């Protein structure tokens, strides 16, 4: 998947596996094109930001993103980052966002890895041995049970009791085949800690864990669970951190219809679709909204 159209079509194909939310038609009241978030700042109590395509592209801060967040904070809005990036443990995620130059408190950053690890604890899965797909730099210190890093040894796939997919940075087609074959021999819990199909980078799109997770489902795996947007667990973490704010006063700001916008709408949040730098950069986004039936409360080029 090398372009927005192919990526959109894949999201459409897997949409029956995604949460459902009320669909708007483009002309319904509330679907509105605006210049930036300052136009609606007085209508919200908290702004929740996706990262890639909204605040940064790859390792580069999108111009003005840091200033907009500071402006919203100054007028009393709560700020949260809600990211599907699961390649870093909590300490690494905090360090990454601070390296972009955005003024954030540690507890303002919520990741799909947080939601995945909580689910492991809540669902009594912390007593099993996990086969983990992760970067070499990830020390896996936050995994609440025994874990081995998966590589090219087929026997490692068969001996673990479940799979935890944190990062696809170094994942290969050959390793994916080993995982599929092992699950076909013995179907086991498989947790996909990043539901994104792709992420925008400086030089194009990278394939993310969600891409490989849906391949597993296509191949017949029946115990695959996705975490991160659009799935509810990560939105619930954000809500728990903002307990006194009504859901319609939470504004999810994202660049992807089937993750950021759909997932927030399914929770009753307001939504802001950011179009200039992310998945649909350079495209007529109205076409994709019509085809999917997913329309944000507001649409704007940048925050």
Structure explained in plain terms:
With 303 residues, this protein is an alpha/beta fold. It has helices at 4-14, 65-74, 90-99, 112-122, 154-159, 173-185, 209-218, 232-241, 257-266, 285-292; strands at residues 32-33, 46-49, 56-57, 60-61, 78-83, 109-111, 130-133, 147-149, 162-165, 190-192, 198-201, 204-207, 224-226, 250-254, 270-274, 298-300. The strands form four sheets. The chain has a seven-stranded parallel β-sheet. A five-stranded parallel β-sheet has the order 8-7-9-10-13, covered by helices on one side. The chain is globular and about 55 Å long.
Given the structure, what is the number of helices? 10
What class do helices, strands and sheet pairing give?
Answer: alpha/beta
What's the CATH first level of the largest domain? Alpha Beta
Task: Kindly report the oligomeric state of this protein.
Answer: single chain
Main sheet strand line-up: 1-16-15-14-2-5-6
What global shape is seen? globular
pLDDT under 50 segments (min length 5)? none
Counting DSSP E segments of at least 2 residues, the number of strands comes to 16
Order of helices and strands: HEEEEHEHEHEEHEHEEEHEHEHEHE
Classify the beta-strand content into a percent band.
15-25%
In the CATH hierarchy, the third-tier topology of the largest domain is known as Rossmann fold
Overall domain count = 2
CATH 4th-level superfamily of the largest domain: HAD superfamily/HAD-like
Residue-averaged pLDDT: 93
What share of the residues lie within helices? 25-40%
CATH architecture of the largest domain: 3-Layer(aba) Sandwich
Q: How large is the radius of gyration? A: 19 Å
End-to-end Cα distance: 27 Å
